[in-house]
Design goal:
The chain is mainly alpha-helical and about 170 residues long. It has 2 domains: about 40 residues; about 100 residues, Alpha-Beta Plaits (2-Layer Sandwich), CATH 3.30.70. Helices cover about 55% and strands about 10% of the residues. The protein has a 3-stranded antiparallel beta sheet with strand order 1-3-2. The longest helix has 30 residues.
């Protein structure tokens, strides 16, 4: 099996990320960032050769992923307020429970993104992921239904279904 050369896109992406995070845009910081990004890129070339099964040449896939990120941010904000309300209430009315469900996602990266999204959302925690089975801890019983039939999974399914335009 022939390995693909790592795409320089990753190097450019790292440099852009560095420039976003840096506090000053003087020549010394920019050159240091480029040098560090290049070293990280060279040390991780073998990891970057892994094909995760996604190709982002399809504009619909990119649109779905942008929708996914927007949904994730919205859910994190709303869940933060909801959990804060529960924690700050005089009567701590929580009904913790653990549930298990099987996802319809086929790609391991999609399942990992789903599990991490569940964990990032306050009030829920992915305890274990084994194949397509996820075990999730919920702070409230009412969260169980929304986790098992999440909008996260629906959008990731759309990303998986879109054909790669390679």
């Amino acid at each position: 099996m022939k390995k693909n050369k790592p795409n320089t896109f990753y190097l450019i992406l790292m440099v852009v990320f560095w420039l976003i995070l840096t506090e000053s845009m003087d020549l010394q910081m920019v050159l240091a960032g480029i040098a560090i990004c290049f070293l990280v890129f060279m040390m991780n070339m073998d990891i970057l050769e892994i094909n995760f099964g996604y190709s982002f040449k399809n504009k619909k896939k990119i649109l779905y992923l942008i929708q996914y990120l927007a949904l994730l941010c919205k859910e994190i904000v709303f869940a933060n307020f909801h959990v804060a309300k529960i924690v700050l209430s005089p009567k701590l009315l929580i009904t913790p429970s653990v549930m298990s469900f099987e996802t319809r996602l086929e790609k391991p990266l999609s399942r990992t993104i789903l599990a991490n999204s569940i964990t990032l959302t306050p009030g829920t925690l992915t305890v274990k992921m084994q194949g397509k089975k996820l075990i999730v801890h919920c702070l409230m019983d009412e969260y169980i239904e929304s986790v098992a039939h999440s909008k996260f999974e629906e959008l990731l399914l759309k990303v998986e279904e879109e054909p790669n335009d390679d």
